[in-house]
Amino acid sequence: MKDEIAQIMSLVAYGNAYLQGKPVSYDMNHPAGFHYKNIRFVETVPEDLLARKNVIAEDPNKWFKFLKNNKYTRLYLSFQSTKSLGLADHISSAFVGGGSQWNIIAEKCDKCDIWQTKWRMEFGDLKVYYFQLIKDIDLPKITKTNFEQAKLYLKEILKDMIEFTVKNELANWTKVFQVALDFLSVEESYKLLEKGFLPEGCFEIEVKQILTACDQAWVFGGMGSWNDVVRVKDYDLYTRLSANLYDTLSKAMIAAINSYP
User: How far, in Å, CA of 61 to CA of 176, rounded?
Assistant: First the structure.
């Protein structure tokens, strides 16, 4: 999956563990801790990308402390379609800043704050990742899909993808989706997510199965990716399945991460 999605998922998981009193730490050695030194939690994204103006927390651990000190009770992961660049999300996700808008909802009594991902690339390869605060929103009704249901939906779309790729003689893609499907029945935790991706002792094995399968099945990108497939017998079906796969993967990841606490 995209690095930004892996990072925001792990931040929600570790943030909730911290709010529950677990002795966790999120640092540059975390599997999704890339560009750790340039993660900023801000009220306003500054014009100077490296400026410290309006910075609430300069790294994830300081952000966790900010949340706890300000009596937030839990975090939720969410996403919304953007149709950025005039393209469907599964297509635009191949581009910088494309795809869905991924957010963190921080609950506080009957209100919440929303942290939106806002990241830019400047100064060559240097990336600065911003999570921008939107304050005092009425807490939305959060409809939680349990991870058991999400796993069923994920199985169905993966079976559909396998059937489609077999019929269209796309053997390499059949293997990709079959491996993803197989992950949903793996019982050995060490064969699933990279160690430390989720905080220890917080999530069920099914959650790890779902996230590993989603990582394997996240096939959206540029040249050579699933988005680049053109030679199929039914292109309309290909388009519908691709959009459904993207939506199902996104919702499955959210259901998995939001299952704790």
Answer: 36
